[in-house]
């Protein structure tokens, strides 16, 4: 199958390589000519403009976007509208907000261009392990794209499916990332508690290895935690600063809209905010309030 890929960062490039290995023809485009050249060296055809990319694809064209969510997606779609024709397909494989996806699908349908949202998980491991793909869009269009999804997934019949209409794929991926936040926070807190029990002199990597086999909490995240604790047991040189992509926020916002309690996901998001505070003003104020009403001790900076 023939596919154009826009956005050749690490994940986009890895997806291109996996598709090439699966026998698909890939035309890659990115703003960086070096990124284009890297996928060309893997066997793809390169394009140095969106118009050139479209011109190298045979109708009905299929173009997969792997670019940052928000304005970059809207700008790219706007630039593609003119060169694309009726029944061409745009797939958004990035982390777009599902309501934006629904809006874009409606707009493109008026121009008779199909829009498919493919929530994509797998990160840097997708090339070797395959990607988890949560696909939204028109059923017939998604079915026509089956060869692509079967190649990208861990197996043709595992790790991907058509989950619903336009927006559903990105919605499911959003919730997936919210769950991911909670799982990672639980592992982080558990291992921190183990480390705090200094009298036992626990080997955290050893414990992770025990839990990886037969335990109810075994998972790929635990496998990764075990690797980390083997390589750097005390996490030396690492700042306790946790970034977030935005999908955890969207998950919490959705829960508020639905009046549904999701305390674990919400608290894991707030903990990421807390990790970025160089000076925890709130805790300073708590200490001073305790001193004011009860004469309790405070710890002053030396």
Verbal overview:
With 302 residues, the chain is an alpha/beta fold. The protein is 51% helix and 13% strand. The chain has helices at 10-21, 33-41, 50-55, 71-81, 98-110, 126-129, 139-144, 146-152, 168-196, 204-211, 220-231, 247-257, 263-275, 281-294; strands at 2-6, 25-29, 45-47, 62-65, 89-92, 114-121, 132-136, 160-164. It has an 8-stranded mixed β-sheet, sandwiched between helices. It is elongated, with a radius of gyration of 23 Å.
Task: Name the descriptors.
eight-stranded mixed sheet; single chain; 51% helix; 302 residues; 14 helices; elongated; alpha/beta
Summarize the structure.
With 302 residues, the protein is an alpha/beta fold. It contains 14 helices and 8 strands. 51% of the residues lie in helices and 13% in strands.
Helix percentage range: 40-55%
Unreliable runs: none
Q: Spatial order of the strands in the main sheet? A: 3-2-1-4-5-6-7-8
Structural class: alpha/beta
Beta-strand percentage?
Answer: 5-15%
Distance between the termini: 66 Å
Q: Round the mean pLDDT to the nearest integer and report it.
A: 95
Major sheet: size, sense and barrel closure?
8 strands, mixed
Assign an overall shape. elongated
Strand and helix order: EHEHEHEHEHEHEHHEHHHHHH
């Amino acid at each position: 199958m023939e596919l154009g890929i826009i956005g050749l960062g690490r994940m986009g490039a890895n997806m291109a390589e996996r598709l090439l290995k699966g026998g698909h023809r890939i035309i890659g485009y990115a703003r960086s000519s070096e990124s284009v050249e890297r996928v060309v060296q893997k066997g793809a055809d390169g394009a140095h403009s969106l118009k050139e990319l479209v011109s190298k694809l045979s109708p009905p064209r299929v173009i997969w976007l792997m670019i940052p969510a928000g304005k970059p997606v809207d700008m790219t779609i706007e630039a593609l509208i003119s060169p694309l024709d009726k029944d061409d397909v745009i797939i958004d494989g990035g982390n777009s907000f599902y309501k934006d996806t629904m809006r874009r699908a409606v707009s493109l349908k008026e121009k008779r261009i199909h829009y498919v949202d493919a929530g994509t998980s797998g990160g840097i491991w997708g090339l070797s392990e395959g990607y988890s793909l949560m696909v939204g869009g028109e059923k017939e269009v998604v079915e026509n794209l089956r060869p692509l999804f079967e190649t990208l997934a861990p197996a043709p019949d595992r790790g991907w499916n058509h989950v619903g209409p336009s927006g559903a794929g990105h919605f499911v991926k959003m919730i997936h990332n919210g769950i991911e936040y909670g799982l990672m926070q639980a592992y982080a807190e558990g291992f921190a508690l183990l480390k705090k029990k200094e009298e036992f002199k626990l080997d955290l990597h050893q414990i992770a290895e025990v839990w990886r086999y037969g335990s109810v909490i075994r998972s790929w995240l635990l496998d990764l935690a075990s690797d980390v604790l083997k390589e750097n047991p005390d996490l030396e040189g690492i700042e306790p600063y946790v970034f977030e992509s935005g999908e955890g926020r969207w998950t919490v916002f959705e829960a508020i809209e639905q009046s549904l309690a999701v305390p674990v996901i919400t608290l894991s998001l707030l903990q990421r905010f807390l990790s970025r505070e160089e000076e925890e003003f709130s805790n300073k104020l708590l200490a001073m309030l305790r001193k004011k009403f009860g004469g309790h001790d405070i710890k002053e900076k030396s």
